[in-house]
Specification:
Blueprint lengths: L4 E3 L2 E3 L3 E3 L21 E3 L16 E4 L2 E4 L8 H12 L5 E6 L4 H11 L6 E5 L16 H14 L4 E4 L7 H10 L4 E4 L3 E4 L1 E2 L4 E2 L5 E5 L4 H14 L4 E4 L5 H10 L3 E4 L2 H4 L3 H16 L13
Parallel strand pairs: 3-16, 4-7, 7-8, 8-9, 9-10, 10-15, 15-16
Antiparallel strand pairs: 1-2, 5-6, 6-14, 11-14, 12-13
Helix pairs in contact: 2-3, 3-4, 4-5, 5-6, 6-8
Length: about 300
């Protein structure tokens, strides 16, 4: 039985990675998780310069998950290259760097800076607000999504994964747009936009007013969108959204994902990624699958 998957020419030992923003760069989790057992580690978002993030409070629990408005706080690409890449290189897991930006130039600068670094793939977070377009996310407009994909591809040496926003009318259209722009793979879903109000204080719970909802509550939406994207494009899909156990991960694979990313569940169960790797392996034994590719998109 073979757990390996090939995503855009990059071989992972198994189909499990971490969702950006929920695992740091692995340093915080290395006491709880054997990073060698993961297919890949996807880092927190990295920008061309340090970002301070949003004002606090910026995290809240909600029914069936959590809501965050961290604002992509990060130390910037230079410190990331100096500190985080050498740490991750100690382990036998692929390194996927999540890239964020507020303009096309921001993204391209990071992609260019990473071109000669020993990282395996770039995941481009197009849920960032495009400051030049009045704050609408790059990932909410097919034309803008295609354009940012083409721009990053001109600078990237590694395969490019475009991370899609679910806050759109037609996820298939967005997937087609980035595929047409040259994306090597897509990942979805990012968080859904939500809001929480404290009825006693009569005020917003998050300083930002709105935040990204993640966790088990959004999982059925993720399964639906992964399925729709799989029907629309030929590039590999990394599925995510409320994955809390092996069953959730297997659901996304059967819907059309070649790999899965685990996010919010890391916060309440730091070893969940390893449990999911084991659970997928056990399922393959029980159901007689020899390789992951036999399961991908099996449900039609």
């Amino acid at each position: 039985m073979n757990m390996a998957v090939n995503i855009a020419g990059v071989e992972w030992k198994n189909p499990v990675t971490t969702a950006s923003g929920t695992f740091g760069s692995g340093v915080e989790f290395s006491d709880y998780v054997d990073l060698n057992r993961l297919g890949a580690v996807t880092t927190k978002g990295v920008a061309n310069v340090p970002w301070p993030g949003n004002p606090t409070p910026r995290v809240a629990e909600v029914y069936g998950g959590m809501m965050n408005a961290i604002g992509l706080q990060n130390p910037g690409i230079e410190l990331f290259c100096k500190r985080d890449i050498p740490f991750l290189k100690q382990y036998d897991a692929r390194i996927i760097v999540n890239v964020c930006g507020k303009s096309e130039e921001d993204y391209c600068e990071v992609a260019e800076r990473l071109a000669d670094e020993p990282v395996d793939m770039l995941e481009i977070n197009i849920s960032c607000p495009n400051v030049k377009e009045g704050g609408i996310a790059f990932g909410q407009n097919p034309k803008a999504a295609k354009q940012i994909t083409q721009a990053v591809k001109r600078y990237a040496r590694q395969p490019v994964i475009m991370k899609l926003s679910p806050n759109v009318t037609d996820i298939g259209e967005m997937a087609k747009a980035v595929e047409a722009g040259g994306a090597d793979a897509v990942s979805l879903i990012n968080t859904l936009t939500g809001m929480k109000i404290n009825i006693h204080r009569k005020s917003f719970v998050l300083a930002n007013q709105t935040g990204g909802v993640s966790g088990p509550a959004i999982h059925p939406i993720a399964v639906r969108m992964v399925y729709q994207a799989a029907q629309a494009v030929k590039v590999p899909i990394i599925g995510m959204g409320g994955v809390s156990c092996a069953e959730d991960a297997i659901e996304l694979i059967l819907a059309g994902a070649s790999a899965v990313s685990v996010g919010t569940a890391n916060f309440h169960n730091p070893s969940v990624t390893m449990e999911i790797v084991d659970g997928i392996e056990e399922y393959m034994k029980q159901e007689g699958f020899e390789r992951i590719s036999e399961m991908v998109g099996l449900v039609r």
